[in-house]
Specification:
Blueprint lengths: L2 H34 L2 H57 L3 H14 L3 H6 L2 E3 L1 H5 L9 H9 L4 E4 L7 H14 L5 E4 L10 H4 L7 H7 L3 H14 L3 E6 L20 H18 L2 E7 L20 H6 L1 H10 L4 E4 L5 H4 L10 H11 L5 E4 L5 H4 L4 H11 L4 E2 L4 H13 L5 H21 L1
Parallel strand pairs: 1-2, 1-8, 2-3, 3-4, 4-5, 5-6, 6-7
Helix pairs in contact: 1-2, 3-19, 10-11, 11-13, 17-18
Length: 447
């Protein structure tokens, strides 16, 4: 029972008691007055009665005022409680609007203002030579500015020939960034040990090798040093770490520069590497899905095939990628090797295969991060596909970015035309560009 209801019942009980007392008192006084037989005595007694009535009425008024005050206080408390509940609901609704929601809005806003040509350009990663047409690019001046105004590509990848010294490469990258309407991936194929683009031109101390990191069971320090070097120079993407898994008893030209044959160890070292790089502000593009260290040939030299079954790969090399995906991989590179047991034929490279990218990587492994093809200027691709055909196949298979087509302009023009004639839907391009932009603009939302 509420306090106001209880107070009301007490008030009504006390009022009945007082009225009864008043009635009896009046009767006694009147009888006494009559018995006294005196007019003035009766009059005096009536005065006493009136005084008693006045006091009782005052008490009743006070009780009524008290009751009204209590009722008002209870109502005010109820209103305040309701107001608090409404405020909590508003706060809860506001908290449901996340940084991810804001990032999505920013990305969609940029994409909505872009032409088809701009969108398509944003899905290519090429060399500075492919972009500008020069033999060897070691600076970014007016030629680079004009090229970016024409083809505002999604990224550029640099090699040792582009690096002379620290000040030169810093200026080159800084100028390149200043010419672009949107953030660009400035990438390098930097690995551990001797697998380095930076060490020779910049005379850096050689990092521990893959084998040495595997032996010590940790890669954090090496990738922390790598990340610091890259950020200092202006790079923001690494093609790596290498998540390929060696399989005992299988020799392959691609089994070098890996962390070994232990699934858990390789997973841990790759995850430590990509996480450490991310902490430094560098996006890691983990390669090479679904795993290529069992292939009979290097795709750079020609057709490369692995005969591993899907069950075998799922239990070993693809387990590494599943662990990497669960750990939050931002970008994955798909290999140019042929895996007939995955693709369903003996001629389609994984990088051009819908079965590998969409059915396995996207759907089965539920990966919604950035997918980048391996280099399309490798012999396994360029010797069997034209640049325009390869680029279209990569995107239709489900990849987001076309990496190093042999002929950039031919590939770019073909994709633009494919979008305009409906071979590739514009929404398909938008989806890929959104994945690209979510990585590039994430840091601006978090600041």
């Amino acid at each position: 029972m509420s306090d106001s209801r209880k107070s009301g019942r007490e008030y009504r009980h006390r009022r009945r008691v007082r009225n009864t007392i008043l009635a009896y008192l009046s009767l006694v006084i009147i009888i006494a007055g009559i018995a006294a037989g005196g007019f003035f005595g009766v009059k005096a007694l009536i005065g006493v009665i009136n005084d008693k009535k006045a006091k009782i009425e005052e008490e009743q008024l006070a009780l009524e005022q008290q009751r009204e005050a209590e009722a008002e206080a209870e109502m005010q408390a109820q209103l305040e409680a309701e107001a608090e509940e409404e405020e909590e609901e508003v706060v809860e609704e506001e908290s449901e609007y996340t940084e991810e929601d804001l990032l999505t809005e920013v990305v969609e806003s940029y994409i909505s203002e872009m032409s088809v040509e701009e969108k398509v350009a944003g899905l290519f990663i090429v060399t500075p030579e492919q972009l500008t047409g020069v033999d060897v690019a070691v600076k970014a001046g007016d030629g680079t500015k004009e090229a970016i105004e024409k083809y505002n590509v999604g990224g550029l990848v640099y090699s040792s020939k582009n690096i002379k010294d620290e000040s030169q490469i810093k200026e080159m990258l800084a100028n390149t960034v200043s010419y672009s309407k949107h953030p660009m991936f400035l990438a390098v194929n930097e690995g551990l040990g001797d697998d380095s683009v930076l060490n020779k031109p910049l005379k850096y101390e050689v990092l521990k090798s893959y084998d040495e990191c595997a032996a010590q069971g940790d890669s954090t320090n090496e990738y922390a040093t790598m990340g610091d070097r890259l950020v200092t120079l202006g790079f923001n993407m690494v093609i790596g770490p290498n998540a390929d898994l060696n399989i005992d008893g299988i020799e392959s030209p691609l089994s070098t520069d890996t962390f070994g044959a232990d699934t858990n160890l390789v997973s841990n070292l790759v995850i430590a590497g990509m996480s450490t790089l991310a902490d430094k502000g560098v996006t890691a593009c983990v390669g090479h899905f679904p795993g290529q260290a069992t292939a009979d040939k290097d795709p750079a030299e020609g057709l490369s095939t692995t005969t591993r079954t899907k069950d075998e790969m799922a239990a070993a090399e693809m387990t590494v990628f599943k662990n990497v995906i669960d750990a939050g991989a931002e970008a994955i590179m798909v290999s140019n090797v042929i895996a007939p047991e995955l693709t369903g034929d003996e001629t389609t490279p994984c990088s051009l295969s819908k079965e590998v990218i969409t059915d396995i990587l996207r759907t089965e492994y539920q990966y919604n991060g950035l997918v980048i093809s391996d280099a399309l200027n490798q012999a396994a691709i360029k010797d069997y596909y034209s640049s325009d055909d390869a680029a279209i196949k990569v995107l239709k298979a489900g990849a987001d970015m076309v990496y190093l087509p042999e002929d950039f302009e031919a590939a770019y023009n073909a994709v633009v035309e494919a979008v305009k004639d409906g071979t590739i839907s514009e929404q398909r391009i938008n989806d890929s560009l959104a994945r690209v932009f979510k990585i590039k603009y994430k840091s601006t939302i978090e600041e």
